[in-house]
Amino acid sequence: MLVIFGGSFNPPTLAHKQVVDLILDKYKEAKVIIMPTNQDNYFWKDNLASNEDRYNMLKLAFPNLEISNYEFQNKSYLGTYEMLRIFSKRDKDIYFVIGTDNLKQMKDWKNSLALARDFKFLLIKRPTDEIDFSYFKDYIDNFIIINMHSEINATMIRKNVNKHKNWLNKDVYDYIIKNKVYEV
To answer: What is the pTM (predicted TM-score) of this model?
Structure first.
């Protein structure tokens, strides 16, 4: 079982680690790959740290996992469907991790219906999240819900790193301070 955990990881938080831990507790045989988004493809993201900084922080946050630079290597955005198709050559039993916030936006992704039809998802749900499968109702069986409890918020961290340093791995916090990643 291959699990791709994509995201901006801006910065990687203890909530991201909790997601990985929940997955590995539930699926002991899973191989998790962390895949940060390419900053060039997400120009609308607020205060997105450089690809290099996020990659380095992910290496510190997840020293025992593969951190993929797949999206960094591609000049043009191919989309999640194409990425999963390529990675499914490594393992046919492939899952993509998304939060309920991404599920709301997923209908606007490239090949969204084919994506929901052809691949499986681990949907991370916080207690207050609402889930709306109406757009993907024909493929609801491809979504596995994993419940998570966390108040950690990356936006709040970026706004005040020192106030929320307990939401970060110590090495990640030290990296942010040393490299002034979020103008601290």
So the answer is: 0.92
Q: Which two tokens stand for residue 90?
A: 């490594």
Low-confidence stretches of the chain (pLDDT beneath 50): none
Per-residue pLDDT of 59-71, as tens digits, reads 999 999 999 999 8
Instruction: Report d(CA 161, CA 176) in Å as an integer.
Output: 8
- What 24-32 contacts at long range (C-beta under 8 Å, 24+ apart), as own/partner pairs, is 26/146, 27/1, 27/3, 29/1, 30/1, 30/2, 30/3, 30/95, 31/1, 31/2, 31/3, 31/66, 31/91, 32/3, 32/5, 32/65, 32/66
Q: Within a 10 A sphere around the Cβ of 85, how many other Cβ atoms?
A: 17
Span 21-59, pLDDT tens digits: 999 999 999 999 999 998 876 655 567 899 999 999 999
What are the residues facing 7 on neighbouring strands?
36
Helices 170-179 and 51-61, axial angle in degrees (round to 10): 150
Give the neighbor-by-neighbor strand order of the sheet with 94-99. 66-67, 31-36, 2-7, 94-99, 120-125, 143-147
> What is the rounded distance in angstroms from the CA atom of residue 21 to the CA atom of residue 61?
12
Q: CA 157 to CA 179: how far, in whole Å? A: 15
What is the DSSP track for 84-121? Answer: HHHHTTT-SSEEEEEEHHHHHHGGGSTTHHHHHHHSEE
